[in-house]
Amino acid sequence: MGRTRVTLADVAAASGVSITTASLVLTGRARELRISEAAERRVRSTAQELGYRRNTLTTGPRAGRVQTIGFVSDTVASSGLAGDMVKGAVDAAYRRGFMLFVGESGGDPVVERALVEAMYDRRADGVVFAAMYTRVVTVPDVLYDGPAVLLNAMPATRTTVPSVVPDEVQAGRSAASVLVGAGHARGVHLIGAGPGVRDVPPNSIAATQRLLGLREVFTAAGVEVVSAHRCPKWTPEYGYEATAELLRSHRPKALVCFNDRLAFGAYQALAEAGLSVPGDVSVIGFDDHPIASWMRPRLTTIALPHHELGARAVAVLVEMLERRGRDVRPPMIHRVPMPVREGGSVARPRR
């Protein structure tokens, strides 16, 4: 015997609010109508605990595709830095005859669940579940209600939901290869993480994988990494402090900064020490953050392919839809290449 469906009235009674208030909260109109934050949290929490699902369509069993894809993210939709990820998903969906509906959770698990439920209740063919930066996520159980793809995220436990992520290991290899190709065999220092793969900021998949790629190429080329400075956050002030500390004991020939904001801080510390880039010190970064194009000389960096990530996630989801019912197992991890963006910050070391 199937379980009895939880109704809106059940949620309202358990939350101690009216059915109207519960409905307004669960349709996203709480702030608009000045319902208190406490009441909103109580209703959403109760709905999740009871397993309430809004039944927005009552036209009977689903038949075929409706050519829509849900895109649920933490902060990616409102982030200027990663706006291309949404654009890539929109473009890929349009080319395949799908519409894309975007929702943003702000990282709130209750809102995440409600958004995914809303997408499926509105009969979306599948959902792309996206993160602002590459991280490990707990896959919401509601994602198993239909085809889904994780974007810029890896599952905390084994799952049947595939992931689309940037190829960070290859990015590390590329950064190391740029320096090796320029003749840097000694005097290389790391800013942001290392020397070991556990010497990284908390939950940073990018740091661990970039380190693996860097170490692979440097070891093969016989390049010794002289020092590594782990930074708790990858922001300019930490890049500045780590580089200033390094300069008190070393005269580096090359810096590998684990993102472009760290590199921006490193530039400031080098300038204050009277050192030029790349004449005295070569610098390479990661991400191709907009700040990289404003640095002088322009920073050489390994780009995060936001547009391609969004497009690939939609492509993987559509392929899953087309394979439905067939005994075909797609890859569980899809890695998107991170290209080198040449700037003027790397040169051959001076003798």
Question: Which features does this protein show?
Answer:
alpha/beta; 6-stranded parallel beta sheet; 10 helices; elongated; 351 residues
Report on the structure:
By secondary structure, this protein is of the alpha/beta class. Helix content is 37%, strand content 19%. The chain has helices at 8-15, 19-26, 37-50, 83-95, 109-121, 168-181, 205-221, 236-247, 260-272, 306-323, and strands spanning 68-73, 99-104, 126-137, 148-155, 163-166, 188-192, 225-230, 254-257, 282-287, 300-303, 333-336, 340-341. A six-stranded parallel sheet has the order 2-1-3-4-5-11, sandwiched between helices. A six-stranded mixed sheet has the order 7-6-8-9-10-12, sandwiched between helices. α1 (8-15) packs across α3 (37-50), α4 (83-95) runs parallel beside α10 and α8 (236-247) crosses α9 (260-272). The radius of gyration is 24 Å and the shape is elongated. The relative contact order is 0.12.
Short description:
This protein is an alpha/beta fold.
Indicate the structural class.
Answer: alpha/beta
Mean pLDDT level? 87
The succession of helices and strands, N to C, reads HHHEHEHEEEHEHEHEHEEHEE
Helix content: 25-40%
Question: How many distinct beta strands?
Answer: 12
Straight-line N-to-C gap: 80 Å
Approximate shape: elongated
> Which segments are poorly predicted (pLDDT under 50) over 5 or more consecutive residues?
56-63
Strand order of the largest sheet: 2-1-3-4-5-11
Main beta sheet: 6 strands, parallel
The amount of beta strand, in percent, is 15-25%
Q: Provide a count of the helices.
A: 10
Radius of gyration: 24 Å
